[in-house]
Amino acid sequence: QKEVEQNSGPLSVPEGAIASLNCTYSDRGSQSFFWYRQYSGKSPELIMSIYSNGDKEDGRFTAQLNKASQYVSLLIRDSQPSDSATYLCAVNHIMRGGADGLTFGKGTHLIIQP
Amino acid sequence: NAGVTQTPKFQVLKTGQSMTLQCAQDMNHNSMYWYRQDPGMGLRLIYYSASEGTTDKGEVPNGYNVSRLNKREFSLRLESAAPSQTSVYFCASSDRGLYYEQYFGPGTRLTVT
After folding, report:
1. Residue B54 burial (C-beta neighbours within 10 Å; 0-12, 13-18, 19+)
2. Phi/psi at A83 (nearest 5 deg)?
3. Which segments in chain A show pLDDT lower than 70?
4. Least CA distance to A5: which residue of chain B?
């Protein structure tokens, strides 16, 4: 059973601070790792992808991957109230027929306090 | 370039009624997926289509059928709706390649009474 674990939160962070979101996964064969942002009542939106160990930065977002520890994290610098959302961690696996499946965590609810 | 579109946005059904949820993508992606999202359960895969002409069951396929009409369109059918199928349904698509990124449609909020 492939699993992706996240702390459900809520995680409350003051505006302007760094928000740190964490995720662990069980399938050592996974090669691709994603963070999706989901606002209430909306669909998941892909915000970060990471494929190799280390850090990947995109604007205020940094994704970190440690395959040995099976750990993925997302850092949001200079947090804004508009960052308040649920963040879903997703990890790939290959399914029958060669389709690329994703296993999702249940998400961390992030609240940025003005 | 609309990405992934879904219709309808909202639907209310009575138990036993049938309906089809429509999904289309304009990104020339090979793979398409149907998920349901329930509070506390996260996103769960119902069915997927690795490529045009193929479909396969996901984690929670019971009570659903799918059709991959062509490369662009992938529909989900509820033959006899049950209250347990009250959920938000998302369609997604991805290309077959190195990165496996999936892109989601806006969703259909379905209530079965």
Report:
1. middle
2. -80, -10
3. 1
4. B42
